Amino acid sequence: MAAEGFQDMSGNGELDESSAHEVHVSPPTEMPEENSSATEAPTEPTCPEPDPFPMPQAAEDDVEMPADFERLWKAASDNPQDFTSWTDLLQYCEQESHVAASRRALEAFLARYPLCYGYWKKFADLERREGLNIKAEEVCIQGLRVIPLSVDLWIHYINLLLGTLDMNLPESHPRIRSVFENAVQAAGLDFHSDRLWDLYVEWEKEQGNMRNATAVLDRVLKVPTQLYNTHYEKFKEHLNSHEPKEVLSPEEYEELRLLCRQSQKAERAEQAQEEEQERPPGEEEPATPDGVDTEELKQKIREQVLIRRDKVYQHNEGEVRNRWHFEDAIKRPYFHVKPLDRLQLRTWHSYLDWEISELNRDTKETIKDPNQAATEETEVTAQPQEGSEGATVVHDDHRVRILFERCLIACALYEEFWTRYTRYLESQSVDEARAVFRRACEIHLTHKPNIHLHWATFEERHGDLNEARRVLDALDKTLPRLAVVVLRRVALERRAGQLDQSEALLQAAVAESKERPTLHAFYSIKLARLLLKLGRNPSRARRVLQEALEISPDNDKLHLNLLELEVSEDPWASVEAVQECVTRALAAPLASHTKILLSQRGLQFAEDYSSSIQSVLSVYEEHQKLLKELGGTKREAENGDEDPEKLNKGDDNSAVAASEQTPPTVPHVPITTPPPPVVGADMSTQGGYGAYSSWYQQPQYSSYGYQNTWNYNQGYYPPS
């Protein structure tokens, strides 16, 4: 499997995915010339946006493409799920240095594989080399909409702005700071976001904003990241390299300065008394100029600052320790089409279980105090005040969502994680859960039916039948002739009270499957069942099965369902129809055991409902002939008891005792192929064609239920 474009992929969420945290990008404002440094730019990524991202439209239709482009393009277009074909195309375009071809290929590739952050960077670099800085920014913004956790793409975007904006303009610095804020809001909680935080701190220092740098360091000290300890060391270095007044906020500085001055006075109280006693008469204590901090006072302020931050650091260290074994077990945090091993999948599940359990535990602890119940939501989701004593890491909903989004980077091709995420979001926001379904089904899992079926069920459960229809219809077009999809559409219309539409869907499926006899029989049975049980129209159901038998006379399931339809009718009017159905089946090219079963069922019906003993005996004799023809010469194969000759040879008393103790058994028929549930039966609780899974697996004959409980040999019929 080719892996071009994945180079330098660390576990920093570089190949992220759009989510409920997708970054919103407003339409770009008017720009100056594209080859200028452009002080105005597209609106920066800011907030979640659930809709699929739009790709820039290429205007290269009239440009002549390289020699092999069309061949490689056709290979990728004809099989868009073949990742290797795409990477071969992209590599060829890059080697040819053909801008139009590269742009066209990258747009198509990223629409299908938007988590490959490396190609977003290549796309932006392509536009920048052409002098189209605004287009390069647009590419970065579009990439960040779908992979907002990509630390590398955020850094690439920031560096692009730093290299193209005129920093002498007053609006440039606020814009860069705004992008940094959006970046740490979107990706700052990632375990591997250290480089982004470091870049933010260094940029603030370069601007001479030491207090801003301190504020950023205060924030990252509360975030469990891989290099959490280096941030604390950098904070110490930053504090010791500058005056406390320069790096601390005015409020914290004045608070600590007052505290330290009081501490100094208390420490010197005794010393001052001694000095006063020894001081010559009339001489006063030397005064310290107001507003001037001594070195001793500055050092005490620094010590107090570190005492406060150390509490935050210690708590954060515990949070890192709790997560470390999960993070260490994740070997591929980026996206790739290659399957993950089971250990990796279990790790993600376990990690999610732990993070959710921590959120639930913190929530329960928060509401233990009745006085805090009114502020539950605020306390669970609010961030601690920067620099506050005893500040802790909060296990909030945002942190759980970030972990889900990280998981869906590496596990984007696994339906189980998408469905788990939607279940988590559904209790909080139906719209956010719907957005996740849309991302999964329309971008990443277009050809996997289960997630689409879950989406349709979700929409129906929440009352949006039109959207449920749209989802199933789109899936039916993507995966035509998939039986489970057709049946889901039929069931949806039935539950909505649209029986005519359900019937029309099944009729269309029957008509379209005539070239595939097995599938045609499958749909015919489903249609007949609908007509019989819901339409109350046995004549139409009978006609459907009879027409299907003309195409598939060797299909035992059709014969069995037609027989059961006849059996389920008025017994006084069905005797001839039942025997006609049995006769038709015996003349068809069916397996021996199926013919015996059908004949036995006809015999049982005659015994139960026939109006004359002659007709019963006639059916019985025909059944006996069939047994002899097919090799079933023993009567126990018919009636389930010992051969009467064997009983006569034995002790009469023992034979009677045995007959009293042993209940009648099922006729011994050599059965090897299971039939489906029949049209007249309750198929919702049976296997076979009645359930969606029956298309792939069928039950055994033991569940069919045709047992002959009457011993025809014990004195009722004479031996033949």
Number of strands: 0
Tell me the structural class. mainly alpha
SS summary, helix count: 31
Q: Which band does the percent of strand residues land in?
A: under 5%
Distance between the termini: 72 Å
Task: From the alpha carbons, calculate the radius of gyration and give it in angstroms.
Answer: 39 Å
Q: How can the largest sheet be summarized? A: none
Give the proportion of residues in helices: 55-70%
What is the 3D shape? Answer: elongated
Overall residue-averaged pLDDT value: 78
Summarize the structure.
The chain has 720 residues and is mostly helical. 61% of the residues lie in helices and 0% in strands.
List keywords for this structure.
720 residues; mainly alpha; disordered N terminus; disordered C terminus
Word description of this protein:
With 720 residues, the protein is an all-alpha fold. It has helices at residues 69-78, 83-96, 99-112, 117-129, 133-146, 151-164, 172-187, 194-206, 210-220, 228-240, 244-247, 250-278, 295-329, 342-366, 376-381, 397-410, 415-426, 430-444, 449-461, 465-478, 483-495, 499-512, 517-533, 538-551, 556-567, 571-587, 592-609, 613-629, 636-639, 644-649, 652-661. The two termini are 72 Å apart. 37% of the residues are buried. The model is unreliable at 1-41, 47-59, 370-394 and 633-720 (pLDDT under 50).
